[in-house]
Specification:
198 residues, 0% strand, globular
Length: 198
């Protein structure tokens, strides 16, 4: 862990990290494309809840365990990769089924995916102040929740825009299958990191 990060640097680094394509953002964009912006907005609560719990557990419990036994970190990355593959398979099947209800991305999907998102590790051990108790991190987490709302909304709106822009031109199953491929690639990258390949 590193020391104190100035608020301005924290905001810039957090926005950059949150905006980077990843499993949670893929799900948000997929939901935006499937059911639109308004029905996708509750997923932002799932994203923040996932990050809040993950960061709290990482700082309070997992950090000391990983420091003592690095194999635990490897196991966690592999479990996260397996879950991403499960989601990829689910989205791929949705592409085959041509869903009309847009319900393939659920609150639970986003929550669990964010809970397992490797970005939480960066927040916990790099961006957030390392020398503060969990309760003292409340203002930082409040700022993070605002950034999650802004960036997540942009991803949802981007997905909805793609749906409107390509409606009637590109079949809806293409979006689901592209999302499935993106999640599978992320799972592969996570597995490679777990084994020290990259």
């Amino acid at each position: 862990m590193v020391g104190f990060m100035e608020p301005a640097a924290f905001v810039l680094a957090s926005l950059t990290l949150l905006a980077t394509p990843g499993p949670t953002n893929t799900l948000l964009a997929t939901s935006g494309a499937g059911v639109g912006v308004r029905r996708s907005l509750p997923l932002l609560v799932a994203e923040f809840g996932g990050y809040l719990i993950a960061i709290s557990l990482l700082i309070g419990l997992v950090g000391p365990v990983i420091a003592a036994a690095p194999v635990v970190g490897t196991a966690l990355r592999l479990l996260a990769a397996l879950y991403l593959l499960y989601l990829a398979a689910k989205l791929w099947r949705r592409g085959v089924e041509m869903p009309t209800d847009g319900a393939s991305v659920t609150f639970t999907n986003v929550f669990v995916t964010t809970l397992l998102n490797p970005k939480a590790i960066i927040f916990a051990f790099t961006l957030l102040p390392a020398d503060l108790a969990l309760t003292a991190l409340a203002p930082w987490m409040a700022g993070l929740s605002l950034m999650i709302g802004v960036v997540g909304s942009i991803w949802i709106a981007a997905g909805a825009s793609l749906r409107r822009g390509f409606a009637g031109v590109v079949p809806s199953r293409v979006g689901y299958r592209l999302s499935a491929v993106a999640l599978a690639l992320l799972a592969g990258s996570l597995s490679a990191h777990a084994f020290g390949v990259v």
